[in-house]
């Protein structure tokens, strides 16, 4: 048995393994379902590497118990939490303050507990921007195409507009939420000055014209994963233009059909793992004021993904 002091935290060790102490802090993932999340692996590894006496757990919480979950962050003096479906919008009702990007997006994926206040952030869009910059690309003064209109798409569109994108063209199926989404995009466009256009996903002639002129194509749909693995979010790979860089937000499988087709055409393509890591890294920084060790986390998640079904 031994005691170690690192970065002001006291760790109790037995046989070289860190144990939970009386001062251990807690952070959590609140979603339904929650068991699939990579976040516990990511954050617990980062806590360990940074010498922070804290643990991160996943909690199965839906909108019916969300208020109690938020109050537990305050009562238990937690660092904060991450929130995913179906809680990203519902959580807004229970927060004391919103960051500018969370207010613009209208959804929160990270809550920070500070001075008994619960502050909401949305790190999805910021995580995407970091992932884009990491591979030597930029959204500044670029024409973007986004396929899909879900929560991740909303965050990315808003952040790209805030970062100075030249134009964003969004393709979404014309369903019951189409016009509500159009109102959201109009609000983002008005507040940021970025031209944002919404098109029916079925309007292939318009999509072909945009693809010829665009700099980045972002797949924010689920086409390419789960039951749709092997499917393309475009009618045909020949629609891809050599001037594009492709980002697919899907990270499992690591190479979607869209990315495979892009590779065949010599087009640069990237999956969503780096966005996942970077949005988590921003949350980690907000809770701890320390940088997440990105390269170690990337290696850890790669090993975990390779062996999770073994």
From TrEMBL:
Superkingdom of the source species: Bacteria
CDD domains from the UniProt entry: NAD_bind_Shikimate_DH (cd01065)
Keywords on record: Amino-acid biosynthesis, Aromatic amino acid biosynthesis, NADP, Oxidoreductase
Residues annotated as domain SDH C-terminal: 272-299
Catalytic activity: shikimate + NADP(+) = 3-dehydroshikimate + NADPH + H(+)
Gene Ontology molecular function, alphabetical: NADP binding; shikimate 3-dehydrogenase (NADP+) activity
InterPro entries the record matches: Aminoacid_DH-like_N_sf (IPR046346), NAD(P)-bd_dom_sf (IPR036291), SDH_C (IPR041121), Shikimate_DH (IPR011342), Shikimate_DH-bd_N (IPR013708), Shikimate_DH_fam (IPR022893)
Pfam families given in the database record: SDH_C, Shikimate_dh_N
Enzyme Commission number, as recorded: 1.1.1.25
Pathway(s) the chain acts in: Metabolic intermediate biosynthesis; chorismate biosynthesis; chorismate from D-erythrose 4-phosphate and phosphoenolpyruvate: step 4/7
Residues that hold NADP(+) according to the record: 148-152, 249, 272
Domain (Shikimate dehydrogenase substrate binding N-terminal) ranges: 30-111
Broadest EC class assigned to this enzyme: oxidoreductase
GO biological process: amino acid biosynthetic process; aromatic amino acid family biosynthetic process; chorismate biosynthetic process; shikimate metabolic process
Catalytic machinery residues: 88
Residue numbers binding shikimate: 37-39, 84, 109, 124, 251, 279
Function: Involved in the biosynthesis of the chorismate, which leads to the biosynthesis of aromatic amino acids. Catalyzes the reversible NADPH linked reduction of 3-dehydroshikimate (DHSA) to yield shikimate (SA).
Quaternary state and interactors: Homodimer.
Record family assignment: Belongs to the shikimate dehydrogenase family.
UniProt protein name: Shikimate dehydrogenase (NADP(+))
